[in-house]
Design goal:
By secondary structure, the chain is mainly α. 61% of the residues lie in helices and 0% in strands. It binds iron/sulfur cluster (SF4).
Length: 225
Amino acid sequence: MKQSHSNELQRAIKIIRMLRGATKGMPETANSLIIDRYGKDPYLILISCILSLRTKDTTSYPASTRLFAKARSPKGMLKLSPKTIESLIYPTGFYRTKALNILKISQDLLDRFDGMVPKSEKDLLSLHGVGIKTANLVRGEAFDIPAICVDTHVHKISNRLGLVKTDTPEQTEKALKELLPKQYWTEFGRLLVMWGQNICVPISPFCSKCAIADLCPRVGVKRSR
Ligand code: SF4
């Protein structure tokens, strides 16, 4: 059992090393673009993550920049009406709900956290509309606290790679945390999101041009290119 954990760990580390090189030059994720543009601002990382839920990066990133051109703080955000926020973030998925959530979060941050984004998982999860994926992204990217942000890409690819055998993103997060040392958590999530957006796409992945194909058992892949 111990031996197989160590073999899997070695394979996972090899995958991470190869992905570091193979993702160079790929389009950056919306989250990385936000950090490049505004720095590691926890509030902007949080709000842009809310906008990215159920929405492609190519839609959520421009929506974030339109919104942040009008408001970049909880106080500033509360000066905008729900309708104005809706029109700025359209066409992100569930834009009406997101507009209300953004206002509720902003009010909550002012009421309970002096206008600052909290660092703890418990406090982040207490904010309206913030789930574990968003909490992990904020902890990892804004505060450099080791956290694995498991979105659909990370969940799917971890299973295809055979690193985990799980049914839900929550189970995947738990299994990856058991497998990987903390130093890899945030980076692993980031690399797999890029890989999932460009090579290991949800339907019919590009296995023929995959840099980690030799390390991948392609679990559950029925159709590939
Ligand atoms: S070989 Fe195919 S299934 Fe495996 S990581 Fe690469 S693209 Fe994904």
